[in-house]
TrEMBL record, chain A:
It comes from Flavimaricola marinus. InterPro entries: Bact_Kbp (IPR052196), LysM (IPR018392), LysM_dom_sf (IPR036779). Gene3D superfamilies: LysM domain. This is LysM domain/BON superfamily protein. Residues 229-278 form the LysM domain. PROSITE patterns: LYSM.
Automatic annotation (TrEMBL), chain B:
It comes from the Bacteria. This is Rhodanese-like domain protein. SMART domains: RHOD. InterPro entries: Rhodanese-like_dom (IPR001763), Rhodanese-like_dom_sf (IPR036873). Residues 92-197 form the Rhodanese domain.
Amino acid sequence: MIRIVVGLFVFSVILCAWIVIDPSGGDKQPDAVAGAAPAVDRLGAGVEVTREQPAQVETFQPALRSVTRVMAPSSTLRTGEETLDQTTAGILAGLGLDTGVPAPAPTDEMGQMTSGILSSIRAVTGGTPAPAEPSALSELVIGALRAGETDATIDTLVNEAASAGTVAVPNILVTADGRVDTSVLLASIVTQARVASGQPAPAVPDVPVDGAGVEVRVVQTSTDAQQFRFYTVNSGDSLGAIAIKFYGDAAFYGRIFDANRSTLSSPDRIRVGQRLVIPEL
Amino acid sequence: MVLAVGFGSALTAQTVPLIEDLTEVRVEVNGNVISIQRDQAIASRYSRQAKLPWNCPPDCIQPLIAAPGVTTIAELETIAFLETMVSTSLGLLIDTRAPGQFAQGTIPGAVNVPTAALAPGNPYLGEILLALGAQTQGGALNFDTALDLTVFGAGPSSDQAVRTIDNLLAAGYPASKIRYYRGGMQDWQSQGLSLSVHQNEG
């Protein structure tokens, strides 16, 4: 009897000691700065937390550069000067819907100011972005939509025409494996048509932290914790599709392109395996 | 002359630096020391720049030349620029002041591009440069087809226009395509020249 009691006592002492010491350490950062703790907690599992000085943040860039330099350009599609917005506006105009605005209004202050500036510059210079006559790509898509073709058929038609060089495509539609991402084009048509008919622009989607290719890093500086999102390009991704994935609208592709200019020479040059910085909107 | 100096020094509490860290210039002429200072009370009688008090920076007296290669012009050249370049869509007259000031009255034909819009931190900088006629060429910007610009701000003691010119040059805009109307709104209005009001615009 005494042996059992002593045995239980010894076992409980060992158990208590194990709980207190907690050999795994969990995923708690005992020395985390109090202000940064909620942000880290919210990210949950699968999140890499790096606590580095701000100067070391820049070491990401050379590392990225060396990775992307190795990969050879593979794009063979003919890309044109026309942007996705212009193509979309051209298609909608061809279908009898005047979008009025060439692009959905950005939500941030700087973006709103910029779109005001752009429209006033264009008002003086007469350089409206909407194409005077529809491009070959617009005509092809208008014809297919009028004929009631399915998305899959439109995809085949556009890709055949693009690889034959008979149409030029906006460069953000070029996927990492050198095809035309028609789903982004069709999504952009729907978005602009919604905005033109007075419906709200698509909301910024919640991108799952553990989604394929998505990576979040929290860099702790002396003043605050800054969150960086990265996305590793998968086969079939275009810059437009990545902008839709993170921002809900292909029109924001420029934010991603600008943030990755050091490794991305042109929006149609994304590569499978390339790691892109995704800035906050 | 003596009276003016006395008046100026009596209000030393309201002196503003002429340029950064320079509040007074003393010169000896014929054995007499004369002092050049900058007085807000006097300035406000001649200037229409509404913002008071002035501080330098940013309200420093601007140099005649904004940057090497950039031509400084006055009212007649600005009007000629409107006649020859803006009317033919080859040029753009840029008001660098804040949208609120622009709305209250600007040079007719001017477009509002606030200084902040061309600052390197604006993620949309590239889009504005494209709207100004630059073209993308192999990932870089080519300014061969870019518009000629005349840039102005509130007046000779406002740094907005000069900062905008600096930002344009830093982005690669050729100096030969930029003109600096140093007098700005202050000189334009002091000559009684026409204004255009944009009260109802965003």
